[in-house]
Design brief:
The complex is a heterodimer of chains A (183) and B (153).
Chain A: H1 4-14, E1 20-25, E2 32-37, E3 40-45, H2 51-61, E4 66-68, H3 74-84, H4 102-111, E5 120-121, H5 122-128, H6 135-143, E6 156-157, H7 170-179
Parallel strand pairs in A: 1-4, 5-6
Antiparallel strand pairs in A: 1-2, 2-3
Helix pairs in contact in A: 4-6, 5-6
Chain B: H1 7-26, H2 28-45, H3 55-73, H4 83-87, H5 94-103, H6 107-117, H7 123-130, H8 134-152
Classes of the chains: A alpha/beta (183), B mainly alpha (153).
């Protein structure tokens, strides 16, 4: 039987009032915050980020109609579980890019196409996004990726193979690269 | 202007209060329906809300309106208790007449009357919901009742 709040989330969605649905899900690295709009996955909050702050940011930047509605994130959760188990190499999830834009978005879309088990350098990513000299901006774009893991910014390394940075912390970046057989 | 918090915060913090108040106002069986209507109405209006300083009061005010709607729709059920019902004892259509008259009161009085009799809140809570002093809440309630007595007589 559905709880009162599940019922409310469903009715809100049916009336077009559920602008941002979110869920917290377990991962080998800690809790992930997943958020979706009717257009697609809009935010993956890594365990290093405070979920309350992330939700406040979503309320301010997208809409204050933010509700916990785990059912809306079933697909994303299922694919992430399979990915962490090493049984999924390509996500098939719609992405809502509205939290990004401009050159950052170009870079992030390029990163979204780096295949599983491969890496690119910040320079290569900058070049593919149309500006080879904007290496620093490419690094910023990785750091501000709204949907990490699904858009695999962990596959971007320094020229020469040094890890570079990661919003979820370097141990997580290293573990993801190991999972994909890169390290 | 204070930034509006994620709507989920309102549910986490005030759902139990809203449900409690509605159970008192419309009874256990119908409270769930009114609860859904209250939060859907709140969600609908939320992005346009320009004062986020008293969200609990805002929600309770919506809840009292939903309780009034409920009583109007169930005109013959003598649910609300207290003074208002006594006033209406001679009225052939008690609830309907009263809640229509309540609905016609000026906003502060209407809210005070409904929070007192439909939601069964004490004066201090009504004051908190309306964002005024307990004394001002008492006054709104008193004036509302006086006016109702005159109208329904």
């Amino acid at each position: 039987m559905k709880t009162s709040l599940e019922h409310l989330a469903e009715r809100a969605a049916a009336e077009g009032l559920l602008d941002v649905a979110y869920a917290t899900v377990d991962s080998p690295f800690g809790s992930l915050l997943l958020a979706t709009t009717p257009r697609g996955l809009v935010r993956v909050g890594l365990p290093t980020y405070d979920p309350d702050e992330t939700l406040e940011e979503l309320a301010a930047r997208i809409s204050p109609r933010v509700l916990e509605a785990p059912a809306r994130l079933d697909d994303a959760r299922r694919e992430l579980d399979l990915y962490f188990a090493g049984r999924l190499t390509e996500f098939d999830l719609a992405i809502d890019w509205q939290l990004t834009g401009g050159f950052r978005e170009k870079v992030q879309r390029v990163i979204g196409r780096i295949p599983y088990g491969q890496t690119r350098s910040y320079t290569e990513v900058a070049r593919s996004a149309g500006n080879e000299r904007a290496v620093r901006a490419a690094g910023t774009a990785c750091g501000s990726n709204p949907v990490p893991i699904v858009v695999p910014c962990h596959r971007v390394l320094r020229t020469g193979g040094a890890l570079g940075g990661y919003g979820g912390g370097l141990p997580m970046k290293r573990a993801l690269l190991k999972l994909e057989g890169i390290l | 202007m204070t930034a509006l918090p994620p709507f989920q915060n309102l549910l986490d913090e005030h759902a139990a209060d809203v449900m409690g108040v509605l159970r008192g106002a419309v009874g256990r069986a119908d409270a769930e329906d009114c609860f859904q209507e209250t939060f859907l109405a709140a969600l609908r209006a939320y992005p346009r809300l320009d004062d986020a300083s008293n969200l609990r009061g805002w929600l309770l005010t919506i809840a009292q309106r939903k309780a009034i709607d409920h009583h109007r729709a169930n005109g013959r059920r003598p649910q609300p208790v207290g003074e208002v019902v006594e006033v209406a004892a001679s009225d052939p259509e008690p609830d309907e007449g009263i809640w229509a008259a309540v609905g016609a009161l000026p906003p502060k009085q209407r809210a005070a009357v409904a929070l007192r009799y439909a939601c069964d809140l004490p004066h201090a809570e009504i004051a908190a919901a309306l964002g005024c002093s307990p004394e001002a809440a008492r006054r709104s309630l008193h004036e509302g009742i006086k006016r109702l007595r005159k109208e329904i007589g």
